[in-house]
Automatic annotation (TrEMBL):
Name this protein carries in UniProt: Drug resistance transporter, EmrB/QacA subfamily
Organism: Cellulomonas fimi (strain ATCC 484 / DSM 20113 / JCM 1341 / CCUG 24087 / LMG 16345 / NBRC 15513 / NCIMB 8980 / NCTC 7547 / NRS-133)
GO MF entries: transmembrane transporter activity
PROSITE patterns per record: MFS
Taxonomic lineage from the root: Bacteria, Bacillati, Actinomycetota, Actinomycetes, Micrococcales
Signal peptide (UniProt feature, chain positions): none
GO CC, any one term: plasma membrane
Membrane topology listed for this record: Multi-pass membrane protein
Record field: transmembrane: 26-48, 60-79, 91-109, 121-140, 152-173, 185-205, 217-236, 242-265, 286-310, 322-340, 352-371, 377-402, 423-445, 516-535
Recorded family membership: Belongs to the major facilitator superfamily. TCR/Tet family.
Region (Disordered): 561-582
The keyword Transport belongs to this UniProt entry's keyword annotation: yes
Localization per Swiss-Prot or TrEMBL: Cell membrane
Alphabetic keyword roster: Cell membrane, Membrane, Transmembrane, Transmembrane helix, Transport
């Protein structure tokens, strides 16, 4: 049952909420910024092999990814907290500028060490691009109307996941474009897009001045966060090559644990000034949402990291073809996000969508886990639509729920924290699932060879003189007739050159290991279903973040003036002031400043 919408009375009569047309223009700039961050991850992953070969440092490619991931993850909560205190627009422009500078530098790198450093500069900007875009939308639009606009953001995410491999494959495959090596355009293409985003935001994003909240900058917390995350993210990226129980890995575990303890102590001491205020975890919506985002990131990014490998290794597709094959995945994301956004805007109800979405993600992962060497592409497309639909129904309402549940002054840090937990889950999932894949694929391939050893095809292949004379088959033939040591899978390109009869066990082994990974991802997503069921559903505010802040400031001024007048008159019959942390907005009593209270009171149920 929905309630009638209230007409909030802004505290500042000079502030006029933007029209739908103005919001769409602002959204254009925000989406360009988000597109930069989302596209960069997939476009670089496709071309990193070409880049490593050209810069003579393929063995260092993991550090190029790690540098970007480190700076982006660490700065995400920093952008949220600082923008709550000093305003959104300056920090969003700073994020775009840092990303553009990092992209320009990356396009001029002469070594993998330089590229890793410049990618770190890119990450400094990327940490704010997505989090602040969603937060700025929350400033301008009330939660009930916000849902339909956030669908555009998920469309950007889905589109970039498809375009990234296509564009990256095109640039990596070109020797030169306009006299510049093709792979360098992977980074240089960000420059004109970033400049356009900067100009649009500079010209069209006009936020009213809000009363600055005086906070100390939590430098101890920021330093402790670096100490905690750097070693943990490094071991997540490098653990498979080091060995998860190696001395280097153990040192990273211990250092990260010490950093986490120091971070908890620093945040406890900083209280309201903290980068990640601990009092937010007493808000059930925030704490459940943080756990759900972590699990969804774990299952989503971890599971999806293996799908391109399946398409390229088992099905023999190029990166560009694999990207095009995943177009139905994007269709599912866009459909789910539009349905969730439009329905939430009309009804004010949102909890059902993450519940249904996580269930669909479980079903999608289970469908993925049944892929084989000859799975029809129609089945791959259908499974991708189901998984993408679940993702589209889930991601947007979770962020909306957290934004709606916290005080308006904490919306920036709450939004960035939600994305922070999702990214941490994704990083952990990618590391764990790829480790699981490559630790089991060798055994799966050996089992496939044993299973096919008596098959007529393989027996005929081993007696085929033309096959035995082909140098491309020599390593596998030698392994089968010798000590059984198969070629290293660190470079899987040799599989494509093998005789199809010798390649078959490799393909089946890879498919079986991919199936195992996606089956584990489905099991993890079951926990996501449980968490979304536990997510509270609060009535959606009918005021934007800016209107809430202005109303809060006005009520604080009124309360102060009333108290001062009572003191001057020396009487006790002045009207009571509004209790601290409570403000009346549009006829609805709302808790906006008390960080321990997460929901409105005295509001009629919807």
């Amino acid at each position: 049952m929905s309630s009638a919408r209230t007409a909030p009375a802004p505290a500042d009569a000079t502030f006029q909420p933007p029209t739908h047309r103005e919001i769409r223009t602002i959204l254009g700039g925000l989406m360009l910024g988000m597109f930069l961050a989302a596209l960069d991850q997939t476009i670089v992953a496709t071309s990193i092999r070409t880049i490593g070969d050209d810069l003579h440092g393929l063995s260092l490619q993991a550090w190029v990814t790690t540098a970007y991931l480190l700076t982006a993850t660490i700065t995400t909560p920093l952008y949220g907290k600082l923008s709550d205190v000093y305003g959104r627009k300056p920090f969003y422009l700073l994020a775009i500028a840092l990303f553009v500078v990092g992209s320009l530098l990356s396009g001029t790198a002469d070594s993998m060490y330089q590229l890793a450093l410049y990618r770190g500069v890119q990450g400094l900007g990327a940490g704010g691009l997505m989090a602040l875009a969603i937060t700025i939308l929350g400033d301008l639009v009330a939660p009930r109307e916000r849902a339909r606009y956030q669908a555009y953001f998920l469309a950007v995410f889905g589109t970039s996941s498809v375009l990234g491999p296509v564009i990256g494959g095109f640039f990596a495959g070109a020797d030169e474009i306009l006299g510049v090596a093709g792979w360098r355009w992977v980074f240089l293409v960000n420059v004109p897009i970033g400049i356009l985003a900067f100009v649009v935001i500079w010209r069209v994003l006009h936020l009213p001045p809000l009363r600055r909240v005086e906070h100390r900058i939590d430098w101890p917390g920021a330093l402790a966060l670096v100490v905690a995350l750097v070693p943990l993210l490094v071991v997540a990226e490098q653990g498979r090559s080091w060995g998860w129980t190696s001395g280097q890995a153990v040192a990273c575990y211990l250092t990260g644990l010490v950093g986490l303890v120091l971070f908890w102590l620093a945040e406890r001491r900083a209280q309201g000034d903290a980068i990640l205020p601990l009092h937010l975890f007493r808000n059930r919506t925030f704490s459940v949402g943080a756990a759900a985002n972590t699990v969804i990131g774990l299952g989503m990014f971890g599971g999806l990291a293996t799908l391109p490998l399946y398409l390229q290794i088992v099905r023999g597709q190029t990166p560009t073809e694999a990207g095009l094959t995943l177009i139905p995945f994007t269709v599912g994301i866009m459909t789910g996000s539009v349905v969730a956004g439009q329905t939430t805007s009309r009804t004010g109800r949102y909890k059902i969508f993450p519940v249904l979405g996580t269930i669909l993600m479980v079903i999608g992962a289970l469908l993925f886990s049944r892929f084989g060497v000859e799975t029809p592409f129609a089945q791959i497309f259908t499974s991708s639509v189901v998984f993408g639909l679940g993702l589209g129904l889930t991601m947007q309402p979770l962020v909306l729920a957290v934004q709606n549940a916290v005080p308006v002054r904490d919306m920036g840090v709450a939004t960035s924290s939600s994305l922070f937990f999702r990214q941490m889950g994704g990083t952990l999932g990618t590391a764990v699932f790829l480790s699981l894949l490559f630790s089991t694929v060798g055994g799966a391939i050996r089992d496939a060879f044993e299973r096919l050893a008596t098959s007529p095809d393989l027996r005929a292949a081993l007696s085929d003189r033309a096959l035995l004379a082909d140098p491309a088959n020599a390593a596998v033939v030698g392994a089968l007739s010798g000590d059984g040591t198969l070629p290293s899978l660190d470079d899987s390109s040799f599989i494509g050159a093998l005789d199809p009869r010798l390649a078959r066990p490799f393909l089946e082994g890879f498919a079986e290991s991919v199936d195992l990974v996606l089956l584990v991802a489905a099991g993890i997503m079951v926990l996501g279903v449980v968490l979304t069921v536990l997510l509270p559903e609060l009535p959606l505010r009918d005021v934007s973040g800016i209107q809430g802040r202005l109303a809060e400031d006005a009520d604080a001024d009124a309360a102060g003036a009333t108290a001062a007048a009572a003191t001057r008159s020396g009487t006790d019959d002045a009207p009571p002031a509004t209790p601290a942390g409570v403000t009346a907005v549009g006829g609805v009593t709302a808790v906006v400043a008390d960080a321990d209270a997460a929901r409105r009171v005295d509001e009629p149920p919807r």
